[in-house]
Amino acid sequence: MPLPIGPHPGKPVAMVISSSIALLFLVLEAGLIALITRRRAWPDLGARSPERSVALRETLALLLYGALVLLVGRFVGIHYFGEGIAMHLNGSLVGATRLQSPAEVYTWAAYNGILLGLVPYIVFRMRGYSHEQLNLKSSNIKSDVIVIAVVLAIGCFLDLTLDGNFLKLTHHQQIAGGLLSFVLHLFGTDLPVMIFIYSILAPRYAKLTSPVTAYLLGAASYPAIHVFESWTRYDSPVHSLLSVIVVFLIFFPAGVMKSFLTVRTGNAWVHVWGFHAVSPHVTVDTRLIVRDFDIH
Predict the structure, then answer these.
(1) N or C: which end of the chain has fewer CB within 10 A?
(2) pLDDT score recorded for residue 10
(3) Which residues of the chain register pLDDT less than 50?
(4) What ranges do the domains of the chain cover?
(5) Are 292 and 100 in contact (CB under 8 A)?
C-alpha cells in the first residue's frame, strides 16, 4: 500500500475485506432502523426542493463551490502546515502519522466550519429556504430520538470494544479531550457534512432523480467530499486512482448509513448525533486531540 494510511498501512486485500464487512453490517443496521420506524411515513425530500431547473442550477453551483473550497484548502494547508486541510484531521479513524499543532487544528475546524457549513447555510437561508426544506427540522421528535439512541448505542459499543483506545485514556483525558474533540469535530466535519450534503444536496438529488438514485448519490457524496484526506496522494495517475478507490472503500459504508438516516427521517440532525459527532469523533478520535493538545 503506497498510501500512508495511518502509522502502519494495512494490506489492500485486508482493507477491501474490512470495508465490505462494514458495508454489510451498516446495511443490516439500516434494516433495524427501518423496522423501528416501520409505522412512520416516509418524508418526501423532493417536495422540499425548488423546481427542477432551479434545483439543477443550485446543485451544480454548490458542487463547484465545494470542489473549489476543497482544492484551496489543500493548497493553503500544505503552504502553512505542510499538509492539506481535509474533512478529517490527520489520523482520524486510522491513526496519526504526524503531530498537529493546536493552531493547525483550530484552522482546520474554522476553515471547514465556515466555508462548508456556515456560508452554504446562510446563502440558502437568504434564498428563502426554511429549516424544514433544509432537512433541519424534525417532523417526529420521539421517533428521531429513538433512532439516534439506537444508532449511537450500537456505534459506541463497537467503538469501545473493537477499538478501545478511548478506554485506555485517563479520566481527565477522556473528559477534557473528549469535550474538545466533540466541539472541534462538530465544526470541522460534522456540521459541514450535514449542511453541505444532507441539508442542501439531498433534497435536490430527490427532485432531480429517482428515490433510490437520490439515496445512492447522498451515500456517494460522503466519500466524494473526502477525496483530499491527509493520506491521499495525487502525484501520479496510479496514486491518484488508488487514492480515490481507497477513499470510497473507507467512507462509502458510512455514507450509506448517513444517507439512509436522512432519507428515512427527513432530519439531517439524526445522523449527526447518532452516527458522527460522538461515534466515532469522541469514542475513537479523542486520542488524536489528546496527543495534539498534549492533554495529560
Answers:
(1) C
(2) 66
(3) none
(4) 43-292
(5) yes
Q: Is 285 helix (H, G, I), strand (E, B) or coil?
A: coil
Spatial contact of 169 and 287, defined as CB atoms under 8 Å apart: yes
Residue 127 backbone dihedrals phi, psi, to 5 degrees:
-80, 0
Q: How far apart are CA 189 and CA 116, in angstroms?
A: 9
Could you tell me which of 88, 121, 97 has the C-alpha nearest to residue 225?
Answer: 88
Tens digit of each residue's pLDDT (9 = 90 or more) over 64-121: 999 999 999 999 999 999 999 999 999 898 888 889 999 999 999 999 999 999 999 9
| Amino acid present at 132 | E
C-alpha cell at 211: 428515490
Report the pLDDT value the prediction gives residue 1, as an integer from 0 to 100: 81
- Residue 129, φ and ψ in degrees, nearest 5: -85, 135
CA atoms within 13 A on the CB side of 278: 17
Q: How many CB atoms within 10 Å of residue 208?
A: 16
Query: How many residues appear in the chain?
Result: 296
